[in-house]
Fold this protein.
Amino acid sequence: MTTQAKNSRLFHINVTRQCQLACSHCYIDQDIRDNDQSMSVDKMQEIADVIGDTNADVHIIGGEPTLVGIDTHKQYLSILSKLPSSKIMIVTALQNARAVKVAKLYQNIATSYDPNARIEVNNDKWLERCKELRGCGNNVHLCVSLSQSVIDYGVSKALDEVYGFGFRSVHLAAMVPTMNALAETPDPMITSQAMIESAEWALEKRRVGEDGIFVSPFDGLLQGMSNYDGLRCPAGESCVNVEPNGKIHACVAKGGEVKDIVINQMQSTETQLSSNAYILEVAQHNRSRTECFGCEFWITCKGGCRVLANTDIAKNSVECAGFKTFLNYVKGKVHV
Ligand SMILES: C[S@@+](CC[C@H](N)C(=O)[O-])C[C@H]1O[C@@H](n2cnc3c(N)ncnc32)[C@H](O)[C@@H]1O
Ligand code: SF4
Ligand code: SF4
């Protein structure tokens, strides 16, 4: 996801899990996306107190975070903007004009391109909204999820399109294979091949003089195989996913699948972070698998996504959850 400094942490603050779309690749179960609870301003303050002066990457996410009222976002921002060392970003599908109004409040916006057009989202309108935000001086970061549909469409074709839209930096995200997203989750070898295709696309662009291209994970790895954290599972790095009611998980998939029992007396963020449940969850995501013993890429991938590794798709694949075929390809490029 995001490159983090040493004492940093990634916070995914799910201000609501509600979403009006139903993307085929979404890791969040529909019944969780139907919940319209939003995060209180007090809870945001409590999380900000925990973040303090650390170098946190703070993602305002969901669900669709722009469904929370604009006045509430202004209150969230009056708290978050006081964090001295954190990078704040909203993650939105930019599904309607109202989403633009909310997104505009945030200097950094992440959105994703789906060439198959997300259900109910018209790509032309999505592009207009991206251009409007860029025109206002906001930074619009782009992500493309490597779902089976996107791979069937063609990774190079999708990259050509986003290049044509004016994007020079794009992050390709491997699928988080929850139950909801399983049908869109490719065999890891297919994901490796898609990442290699993206690398070849970037190299070809540079060969013809386009030097401003950055396609991750490839370019992130080129800059430093062991420094780049984009292939490591954020849960193993003590990522904090906060639900609208304040419940915390280390793994992004868990919040998308496990429906919280509504607890009126939710423990504080600080208490949950030092609880055995959270510490155990992080430790489970750092446990090595026998296939990883002695592997030269361990530092780079730390075994990849555990949810992926535990699927039958990965268990029946000749490829590992760390995309070793792709890592070997990158290694070949580093040494030329
Ligand atoms: C869950 S969405 C929430 C924010 C907003 N609704 C959106 O779609 O941008 C955050 C990001 O995760 C991506 N995403 C959703 N499901 C995924 C999955 N199963 N695997 C990988 N990425 C996924 C989305 O495409 C989006 O870029
Ligand atoms: S990926 Fe985002 S826009 Fe699509 S259903 Fe999930 S939360 Fe909604
Ligand atoms: S590349 Fe594959 S085998 Fe090697 S450490 Fe990563 S997940 Fe394990």
